[in-house]
Amino acid sequence: LSSGLVRTDLLSQVSGAAPHGTGTFVTNSFTPPSNSLLVVAVMAMEQSGSTDPSGDISVSGGGWTYTAGVTIGSAASFSIGLRIYTAPVSTGASMTLTLDLAARSARFYAVSVVAYTGYDTSTPTGATGTVVDTASPDGSQSITLSGAPATTSEVFAALGIDKETLGVTPGG
């Protein structure tokens, strides 16, 4: 991690009692730093669904343009989808995020938001991840990076699980 790159944890939130249902979920407010890169991981579990919902997850808020990076989803019963978005922030101000799962009924949403200052504005995300195995959504998963991380960078990863699951240990 270079001395110029600084991470600020902004928000970690789970929507209320399940099921959330259809319609959007609006997060608590937070204030990103000016001239930062916002990184947003959104996970949604579909209520009784059995098709991958990850492509239907969207995020908006703050007037920023969000670019989807990593997308992972499972098509098991009560399917889970996760997307990681980035958005450059010019002037930070208090804001909320609006999460949506299109026409699907969400059991719940989980969101984690961080901001980076001192990042490379020309290529803020040097590598992306690809899920290697989604055949066993309740088992081990592995992600392959598209390139080796620079020594001046930080790898941002997210783990989406059923909020009622106990004993889950994230990997390295």
Topology as a string of helices (H) and strands (E): EEEEEEEEEE
> Termini, distance in Å?
17 Å
Query: How many beta strands in the DSSP annotation?
Result: 10
State the helicity in percent bands. under 10%
Regions with little confidence, pLDDT below 50 for 5+ residues: none
Q: Mean pLDDT, nearest integer? A: 83
Q: For the report, how would you describe the main beta sheet?
A: 5 strands, antiparallel
Alpha plus pi helix count: 0
Annotation keywords:
172 residues, mainly beta, five-stranded antiparallel beta sheet, three-stranded antiparallel beta sheet, 10 strands
Describe this entry's structure for a reader.
The protein has no helices and 10 strands. It has strands at 6-14, 25-26, 36-46, 58-60, 67-73, 80-89, 98-100, 106-117, 129-131, 143-145. The protein has a 5-stranded antiparallel beta sheet with strand order 1-8-3-6-5, with no helix packed on it. A 3-stranded antiparallel beta sheet has the order 2-7-4, with no helix packed on it. A two-stranded antiparallel ribbon has the order 9-10.
Secondary structure layout plus pairing:
Blueprint: E1 6-14, E2 25-26, E3 36-46, E4 58-60, E5 67-73, E6 80-89, E7 98-100, E8 106-117, E9 129-131, E10 143-145
Antiparallel strand pairs: 1-8, 2-7, 3-6, 3-8, 4-7, 5-6, 9-10
Give a quick precis of the structure.
This protein is mainly β and 172 residues long. It has strands at 6-14, 25-26, 36-46, 58-60, 67-73, 80-89, 98-100, 106-117, 129-131, 143-145.
